Amino acid sequence: MIFLLIAVLIFSQIIFSQNKERPFSLENNSIKSKLFLQKGDSLNKVIYFYKIPYSTIIFEKNVSGFKSKFDIELEIKDSNQEVIFRKFDSHTIELNNFELTRSVKDFFTGFIEFFLPKDSFHINISFNDLTINKRFYYDSKKINLLDDKVDTNSWLLVNSNYKRNNYQFVVDIFGDAIPHSSINYDLLLSSNNQIYDLQKITINDKDSLISELSFEIIKSANLNFSSEKSQIKLDIKNQIHKQSEDKIPKIEKDYLIIKNINQKLYEGDYSIKLLDSKDKLLN
C-alpha cells in the first residue's frame, strides 16, 4: 500500500498580538510548534519544533542588557498513560535592546529529538520560566506509531529560498498551518518506497484545480537538524549513513519535496492530490 498525504492544509496569515500586561500569554497561542515523525522499522524518531516570540518571554534587566532563562519540557506518556520519560531543552537569551524584548517579529526557535517504539503516546508540553520559577502548560500532542499512515506529523515546512540545490533548508514553524506569505515554502513529506508511482501533484480548492505543483523525490535520505542564530537548519544527506560511534540510530527514508507550495495562494482551505500516470489518487 502507498500511504501519502491527501489532506486539507490550512493557509492562514499568522499574526501575533502583544499582551503588555502578561509577558507570557497562552491565550493568543503565541508559541507555535510542530511535531515531525521519522518512522523506522523498530524505533521511530520524533522531533518537536517550537518558535517563541520574544514578546511572550520575561526578561530581567542586568548590567549588560536583558536576560531570560527558560526550558521547554516534554512529558511523554505511553498507551497506559504511564509517564515513560521527560525531555528538557534549556536556554538562556541575552539581549542588549529593550525593544527586542517586546518584539512580536523576533523569535527564539528550537527543537527536541528523541526515539519511541511502536505504540501510541500522549505528550504534555510546558514552558518553564526559570526567571520567575513558574511553569506554564501550553500544549499537548498525540502520536500513533502503530501504523504507517501519513498524517499532519509527516510533513514539515521549509524555506525554499535557502540552498535548495544543496539540499539545505531553513525550517519554519507555523503549527499545522501554512502561512499566506510573500516567502515561498517547500513541503517536505516523509513517504515510503512505493512513492515512485507518483506522476503529478495538484492543489485544489473545494470547487476547482488551482495549479500543478513541481516536486522531487530524494531516495534513502537522512535528515540532520541543527540550530544556528535562532534558525533551525536542515541538511538532507541522500546517501547511506552508518551508525555513529555513540550508537544513535540513523533512519533512512525516501522523502518527497513539494516545491513552492504556498505560491499564489490566499487564505483558505486547500487539498493536495497525489496522482499516478492515470490521474488516480495514490492512497
Question: Topology, pairings included?
Answer:
Elements: E1 8-11, E2 32-39, E3 44-53, E4 60-62, E5 65-77, E6 83-95, H1 98-101, E7 107-116, E8 120-129, E9 134-144, E10 155-163, E11 168-171, E12 177-178, E13 185-190, E14 200-204, E15 209-213, E16 215-228, E17 231-237, E18 253-258, E19 268-275
Parallel strand pairs: 1-12
Antiparallel strand pairs: 1-19, 2-3, 3-7, 4-5, 5-6, 5-8, 8-9, 10-11, 10-13, 11-17, 13-18, 14-15, 14-19, 16-17, 16-18
- Uncertain regions: pLDDT < 50 for 5+ in a row? 1-23, 240-246
Shape verdict:
globular
Order of helices and strands: EEEEEEHEEEEEEEEEEEEE
Task: Summarize model confidence as the mean pLDDT.
Answer: 80
Question: How would you sum up the major sheet?
Answer: 6 strands, antiparallel, barrel
Global structural class: mainly beta
**For the terminal residues, how far apart are their CA atoms?**
7 Å
Q: Give the strand tally.
A: 19
Number of separate helices: 1
The Cα radius of gyration reads: 20 Å
The strand line-up of the biggest sheet is 10-11-17-16-18-13
Helix content: under 10%
Proportion of beta-strand residues:
over 45%
What do you see in this structure?
The chain is mainly beta and 283 residues long. Helices cover 1% and strands 52% of the residues. Strands 10-11-17-16-18-13 form a six-stranded antiparallel β-barrel. Strands 12-1-19-14-15 form a five-stranded mixed sheet, with no helix packed on it. Strands 4, 5, 6, 8 and 9 form a five-stranded antiparallel sheet that branches. A hairpin with a 4-residue loop joins β2 and β3. The chain is globular.
